Amino acid sequence: MQIKPRLQLLDVWQAVAGHSFRSGDWSWGEWGGRSSVADAERLLCLMYPATEIPEFRLDNPDTTQEDVEKALKEMGDTTEIPGSLVRVLSEFMGKHHGGGVGPTFSGGYYFLPEDPEQELTKEQQEIGVVDSFSMSVTLCLATLGFLKIYRTRTNRADTQKLIQGLWDATSQRLTSAMVSLLRSFTVNVFDAESSQGQALCRLLGQQRLSDRVVLQRFQERFKALRAVISESLVLGVEVEEQLRNDNRLFECGWAWSLVRDAPEVETTDDIGEQPRGAADAVPYLYFTVVALDGIQDLFSDRTLTLALLNTEQQRLAEALRLRWEITQQYWSAIARFGEGSWPLEDIPWRTTGQQLESEYFSLCVASILVHDLVRRRATDDDLTRTVGIMERLAERGRITSRMTRDDPAVRLHNPGVALPLLGSDGQGPAMQWAMTDFSAQLLKRTIQLCSLSRNQASHDRLLQLAEDILGHLWKRRVGEGEGVGLWDNVHAAYPSSEERSGPLSWSITERVTECMVAASQLYTQPPIRSAELTALARSLLSESTHLLGKEQMKLAPPAKSQEGEELKGVEADLRRARLLLDTEPGTACALSMGVLRRLDTLARARDTGSGV
After folding, report:
1. pLDDT band for position 378 (50/70/90)?
2. Considering only CA atoms, which of 294, 319, 299 is closest in space to residue 309?
3. What integer pLDDT is reported at residue 50 of this predicted model?
4. Is 579 helix (H, G, I), strand (E, B) or coil?
5. What distance in Å separates the CA atoms of residue 19 and residue 85, rounded to the nearest whole number?
6. Rounded distance, CA 198 to CA 212, Å?
7. 3-class SS at 245?
8. CA-CA distance, 373 to 450, in Å (whole number)?
9. Which of 177, 300, 541, 589 has the largest count of CB atoms under 10 Å?
10. Model pTM score
């Protein structure tokens, strides 16, 4: 299936608007109760494209394009759509605010009991989760950027008052989410002889190296990073002392929620109470990837250009940026540890803490590696090997390969990979988190790698893979009933999978939306420059220029004659071919060949007229 981000995003927008707007009013739905994660994901399906793709902007009614207005007709016309968004966003900010407690980030019905016979307590469902912290960063930045433009396009006093109230609530939620991400970051230090240490040694040694050699190489590889963490991050005296011991191993990243006993973060912004943490100080690959995705939006060109962060938020952003860079460096090094084959190439990945094994965890590590490759501009070798990993994950996930009878790979998609949430049993039954977005996450990372690749062979492999994954995902759209045109109808792709309960998946719908935004950014890049095409284009340009000069030595044709106009067109094509020589050599070749054809036509016409 060819990736057509504009058309596919318009389809998604039309489906979201048709599902969520009932008689002009936004309907949140009642299934499962409140979940700030699901609500933020639904709003991001609209807000993320509207702020990342210029053609989808909704903040200026005068520039809203016709097909965009048609897709969102349930929200009103071009002048009504921005006002509708302001009202819905204001509802979200009020719905997920606890009064004096400040903004809330509940997981809600996304939390599941480990024992299906038990029910979670109300207090458990209201625990904040890293998914919500990260989604809130992205949503708040998108909202602030939208408001900054829209407030200059309307003069109505009631609308301006509503905009100011939404601005204040959004800014408060952004600060609170950033503080929560800081308090969810953790470094777990452990002995090499412990079960976790033994698991990490086996992972890095790949049955080729002894534990002693692995520990020695780990010490050498992470000596500088260990020093940066010890000196730059406030983690508690005990952790810092343990970290300075070179004979101990460590992992870093984000826990599933606020870490228990995490110190409060001093801030001058009023964000209400900082709740006590519930999570054990253990980093999770999934929540680490989610956190990295949200944090990078704090440093985007749009955030900096529009100056969306206040002074206090800029300070917090720098603290998060340090953790963002440390985490990427750590997991990128773990993924590529040692010489020869990478640990990441040994699929499926086994986590060290809970000893869980799944292709989803391989995808999580690959996602962090992609973040790092984008940050430091990958080498061709790194990129080529990562392409192979993506292709193998698509095959093992039965996205690009045939499903077998009673195939266990189906569980990757439905019911998904269950992740026990350590520390969640402090207020009730033990909880878990289900990860069902394997296909959408794989598509997103494939497109990001495709944007990064400047190698023609790797680029073509990645683009083909992305088209195959998109075809698989598009098959899983809901075909009838509630949520038609959205996700997730798993049975369309995997008929043998078990029946799903609950509403449509805003998680996968939002991930697909992100993929289409990433695809649109892919197509705004210049095409890959071919050295062979550039050399050919230079030769064609040289011959074309020479023959044009030769033609211009003939008797000058009348200014308004057909021959005179043809020569002017030839000159214009040659000028454009020279401009495109370095960026689009293929187009320069086509223009030059067109010039040669036209010059030959003129020469033959003249020779025929002279009887030659």
Report:
1. low
2. 299
3. 96
4. helix
5. 15
6. 11
7. coil
8. 12
9. 177
10. 0.92
Burial per residue of 480-489, b for 16 or more beta-carbon CB atoms within 10 angstroms, e otherwise: eeebebbbbb
Residue 106, beta-bridge partner list: 128
Asked if pLDDT for residue 237 goes beyond 90, the answer is: no
Q: What is the pLDDT of residues 304-316, one digit of tens each?
A: 999 999 999 999 9
Q: Phi first, then psi: what are they for 207, rounded to 5°?
A: 65, 15
Determine contact, residues 94/39, Cβ cutoff 8 Å.
no
Residue type, 375: R
Which residue is it, tokens 């008052």?
161
* CB-count exposure of residue 608 (10 Å: 0-12, 13-18, 19+): exposed
Tokens 């002279």 map to which residue? 610
Buried-exposed string 222-260: b where 16+ CB fall within 10 A, e elsewhere? beebbeebbeebebbeebbebbeeeebbbbbbbbbbbbb
Fill in the amino acid letter for 246.
Answer: D
% of the chain residues with pLDDT over 90 = 73
CB 38, CB 108: distance < 8 Å: yes
* pLDDT computed for residue 610 by the predictor: 57
Residue 555 has a pLDDT of 62
Whole-number pLDDT of residue 194: 93
What pLDDT is stored for residue 85 in this prediction? 96
Q: Rg (Cα) of the chain, in Å, rounded?
A: 28
CA distance linking residue 367 with residue 453, whole number of Å: 15
As a whole number of angstroms, the distance between CA 369 and CA 384 comes to 13
Can you give the length of the chain in residues?
612
Spatial distance between the Cα atoms of 113 and 512, rounded to a whole number of angstroms: 27
260 token code pair:
């228990």
C-alpha distance from residue 97 to each of 107, 130, 176 (Å): 14, 17, 11
Residue 250: φ, ψ to 5°: -155, 160
Please report, for residues 12, 226, 404, the alpha-carbon distance to residue 351 in angstroms, rounded to integers and kept in the order given: 35, 21, 27
Which tens digits make up the pLDDT trace of 360-376?
999 999 999 998 888 77
- Give per-residue pLDDT as tens, 179-217: 999 999 999 999 999 999 999 999 999 888 898 999 999
- pLDDT value at 612 more than 90: no
- Rounded Cα distance between 123 and 127, Å, is 7
CA distance 170 to 93: 7
| Residue indicated by tokens 């040659």 | 574
What distance in Å separates the CA atoms of residue 304 and residue 94, rounded to the nearest whole number?
A: 27
Q: Give CA–CA dist 349/336, Å, rounded.
A: 13
The answer on pLDDT for 556 being more than 80 is no
